[in-house]
Amino acid sequence: MNGAECLLRTLLAHGVDTCFMNPGTSEMQFVAALDRVPGMRGVLCLFEGVCSGAADGYARMLRRPAATLLHLGPGLGNALTNFHNARKARSPVVSIVGQHTTGHLRCDAPLSADIEAFARPVSSYVRSLERAEDMGEAAAATIRAAYGPPGQIATLIVPADFSWSEAGQPGRPLGPARPRERAPGPAAECVREAARILRGPEPAGLLLGGGALLEPGIAAAGQLAAGTGVPVFATRFAARMACGGGRFAPQRLAYFPEPAEAMLAGLKHIILVESVPPVSFFGYPGRRSYLAPEDCAFHVLAPIEGNGTEALAALVAECGVESFRPPAPEMSRPTLPEGAGLTPDTIGLALASLLPEGAIVSDEMVSSGESVLRHLSSAASYDLLPITGGAIGQGLPLALGVALACPDRKVIALEADGSGMYTLQSLWTMARERLDVVTVILANRRYRILDIEMQRTGAGEMGRMANDMVDISRPDLDWVRLSEGMGVLATRAATADEFVAQFRAAVREKGPALIEAVV
Ligand SMILES: Cc1ncc(C[n+]2csc(CCOP(=O)(O)OP(=O)(O)O)c2C)c(N)n1
Ligand SMILES: [Mg+2]
């Protein structure tokens, strides 16, 4: 068996059966092996940042890795931004990067680069294959590393000649590999300490992140809120959060530091569940970086790599609040906006009514996010997948990967226009794979958030040149033609009524669609 086939068989033996790829000469053996070894779904992406973002979305939903296959240092370089977001999401990803043949490496050929150096900042594990016969073992070790816990990016660099050389047997899976199943359970003393704080006289809050923001963790936190009165907060940049459907809603920490600080004001204790002390997105003149009050103490109930859900369940038992029902938010659906202008607010109102049950929302709305999302507490049950690492260009690839992972659920990509342009090639793969994604582009023709940031950083008045750096009109992006040029049917909405009609029609059909919402 040659190395490429051995690699493919090892991936499949570990349940890694989807590969987002953009191959070149050094990966041709792997590509050829796809037809000889059944079981791997190869998904072609027309830019490597789409591959890495898609692998992130896939992992956030299934909690198991997809593979990416990229072409040497430059291919990996193109993928780094969304690998950065995936790292912050703690998503498991098996990143395979082709390398020149071993004999060719010393020649400094055009595509030669220090691939390990490219890989290291985003990967918890980097391995360059040194002998063809190590392929099976090295691939298995890479996959195990990706599983974590928590999930992480593990990179295997494969010289082209090892792909065509004899490699021996595929690596065998060793034991259970899922990150949360392997995550350590709660430490009894941490649970007792958290219970003592919740019973004590000083104001305390719970801060949830990671897997604790899925259904069971949120339900347990809701019981604690009901039984002890503790306020429950959610890390804003957690990979995934169960929302809507009348379930208990932890308060997501606000984006800007002032409202975030106001949410945490007065707390003397914060109990961390798969989270860390929260910080402001940026530093600003005259502001602290940390959001909690200076005299607030932090207590770890479950560390980042721990199992926060089990820890919360143990805390529920320790506090004796098993019989409490989580407080549910108001469930009266807002009426659809009629005859109104199209704004983030009216889009939020429309989505609150029209979001299909069980939808998965990829949120890269940037400046429009808060106005849209605040209406969705009364929406049907959905999963929210926000941007985790602040590096824009994540939303469309993420939606692509999510749709491949969960073909029976409707995926809604809520996407700002500037951010959408970074990785719009995602639309082509959505069309080719017939993925069930409705993309809404919030077309404000501007890097709107930077208007606010310009003020906040004290940069002063915006001159004509400066304005040109945040204005993305002249020419206006025509998202309908961009989308249709890549095979995704698209419409443009300029009023709330048009948006409602178009969104209704788009979610009724299966398959990709795009709405340019001019706001
Ligand atoms: C990879 C990367 N490049 C640049 C930025 C800086 N940045 C943050 S938001 C933004 C523009 C956002 O514009 P848009 O996506 O249209 O959202 P809007 O502010 O209009 O809501 C830019 C360039 C970033 N966060 N990440
Ligand atoms: Mg914009």
Structural overview:
38% of the residues lie in helices and 18% in strands. The chain is of the alpha/beta class. It has three domains: 3-170, Thiamin diphosphate (ThDP)-binding fold, Pyr/PP domains (Rossmann fold, 3-Layer(aba) Sandwich), CATH 3.40.50.970; 183-319, TPP-binding domain (Rossmann fold), CATH 3.40.50.1220; 344-518, 3-Layer(aba) Sandwich (Rossmann fold). A seven-stranded mixed β-sheet has the order 9-14-13-15-16-18-17, sandwiched between helices. Strands 2-1-3-4-6-5 form a six-stranded parallel β-sheet, sandwiched between helices. A five-stranded parallel β-sheet has the order 10-8-7-11-12. α9 (188-199) crosses α12 and α10 (215-228) runs parallel beside α12 (308-319). The radius of gyration is 24 Å and the shape is globular. The structure holds thiamine diphosphate (TPP) and magnesium ion. The site of magnesium ion has 7 residues, from α16.
